Amino acid sequence: MSETTKKPVLFSGIQPTGSITLGNYIGAMRNFVLLEDDYDCLFCIVDLHALTVRQDPAALRRKTLELAALYIAAGLDPERSIIYCQSHVPQHAELAWVLNCFSYMGELGRMTQFKDKSARHKDNINAGLFTYPVLMAADILLYQAAVVPVGADQKQHLEITRDIAQRLNAIYPGLFRVPEPHIPRETAKIQSLSEPEKKMSKSDPEDSLISLLDKPEDVRRKFRRAVTDSDGEIRFDPENKPGVSNLLSILSVLSGEGMEALTQRLAGQGYGKLKDETAEAVNAALSPIQQRFAQLMADKTYLAHTLADNARRAQGMAQKTLRKVYKKLGLYQP
Ligand code: TYM
Fold this sequence. Notes:
Tyrosyl-Transfer RNA Synthetase; Rossmann fold; two-stranded parallel ribbon; binds ligand 1; mainly alpha; 5 strands; 2 domains; 13 helices
């Protein structure tokens, strides 16, 4: 990405925790690749966000490198786009502090992710978990991002980011670009294979999710066991048939066959056929990613250099915004 081009900025991030799932791929990464040409892009490994839940240090380091490799393996170009670690660009945490002073306890307390995570980690309801969305707002506003591709679960965090930006803009006109979420309906929410009324989540049991690094036979086995329903009819109806509809969504997105054509073609067939076709479509999508991933992981020096170079490029952009913010807010800048 060249700092002189006029393309609008796209920002998104993924946490380097758990297994990076098919939900992360379809809801986020795949869209990053589809949008990469139209924007100046930053794809962040949000390692500071990961600290809101206790992490094993060695695992966090490994997953950070793996996520860098996955971004590239999925098709993103680290020469054009900026693929980097959040903790390598200190301006994220600095802007987050400023935004904390413009964020309200009430609005943060209403975040469903905070409510969910504090229910799941009752022994560790830390302040970072509470201000998580403020750091996320800082990630985005730091680069004056125009668009933020995410899955549906991040919609509320995008709304609070916009609220915070607008609140500051009302006091300090022109401070931030107000970002737009990019949440295509077809890819917004991939559901769990074992509990299809819930989203597929990195932290869930292995059998309920497809990891981008799953072997083909594991993918087939997991889809064969995927929970469906007992009416035996292949029809897209997420409310009444969440399991079958989830399989249809995955198959339609990855094969490129429209939902209508797909449901017509499969009408009257058994669920076994739908499951097998979905597993094969997933394996076809994952196979080139896994090959490239293995090559990249064999060259850690390349990954380390790429992350370091890209962090420097991000810092240049980030510092521009941070300086503007400090100046406008009245922090003395010699
Ligand atoms: P994270 O790491 O939980 O998820 C990364 C991305 O994957 C999407 N996603 C899904 N999409 C469809 N179906 C699913 N089952 C599914 N599961 C996850 C998420 O919506 C997300 O787009 N807070 C963010 C990371 C973040 C961020 C940011 C994102 C930090 N700063 C700034 C955008 C901009 C998160 O925890 O995502």
